[in-house]
Amino acid sequence: METTELTPDVPRVQTSQPQSKRSSQTEADAPNVAPDNSWAPDHGRQVTLEEYWEKWYENPYPDLDVSYEWNNGILEAKPLPNAPQIDLYNWFLALLRCNLETFDHASLINLETGFILKIEDESDPSGERVQVRKPDIGVILNSNPVSWGALDQRHFAGVCDMVVEAVSDSTLVEVLRDTEEKKRDYALGGVKEYYILDPDGERMRFYALAPDGEYEEIPPDADGVIRSSVLTGLQFRVDDLQRKPRLVALALDEVYSGYVIPEHHVAVTRADAEAAARRQAEERAEQAEAQAATEAAARRKAEEQVKALEAKLSRLSNGSA
Fold this sequence. Notes:
The radius of gyration is 34 Å and the shape is rod-shaped. It has a 6-stranded mixed β-sheet, sandwiched between helices. A 5-stranded mixed β-sheet has the order 2-1-5-4-7, sandwiched between helices. A two-stranded antiparallel sheet has the order 12-13. The longest helix is centred in the C-terminal third of the chain and has 59 residues, at 262-320. The protein folds into 2 domains: 80-260, Alpha-Beta Complex (tt1808, chain A); 266-321. Strand 12 and strand 13 form a beta hairpin. The relative contact order is 0.10. Helices cover 38% and strands 17% of the residues. It is α+β, with helices and mostly antiparallel strands.
């Protein structure tokens, strides 16, 4: 099969195969029709990977807000988010940024940055399906074997260690793409953890890759806390994904204080300690003052008693004389 010269950071992949039955089965089974894609006129178009990098990876339309992923030869438009999805995405992104700033063990990709997913598939003529996915959030550990961060890198040529997607719920097709198709393919591609964010909570899921290569749901503990095995220190309450507390409040919460603005927690703790020390000093001063007043009163009483005795003795002496 012919290949064309690619840019230095783009792998040579043969890509003119049609979309496999396996990758299209989910959409074929969906009972509802596809949405109006007038905002994404090339959704479903067959293009080679070389064509995708050249024309479709970045938005080809100056007057349309559209972003395409590439699924084994087929362009797939990323659905537009609604306001609750954006709010939840931004809150969780802030949580991840706090974790990475504290531990400095990973990098993030978003802003329509893609990564390459290669999946073994016997049903495909090449024995492999290739995708370019643009996750809402992708996490790349510093220990990832593929480097990331150079100025000339416009996509990640390796596999993200964690992927976070805000579920697209305009149609059942889009729901199944996030909850079933991408879940399956991310697992087969080796993404260690896959989080699905859903403002409604109905489809909110957190998965970790099991030794058998399939995802297992991460169970919350008795307090409703999810803990990541990919990102050290990352933990959060499931309920907080609905409430979205402010970071300054999380910094004082024992679940988050280890990585959300830890300096604030230390400062507040120090301020609390200093305030407690001041209260103790004031209490000691008050106690000392009270003790001094008690002792002064005792001295006055003793002096009065002595004077009274002296006066009595004086009277007795005068009487006997």
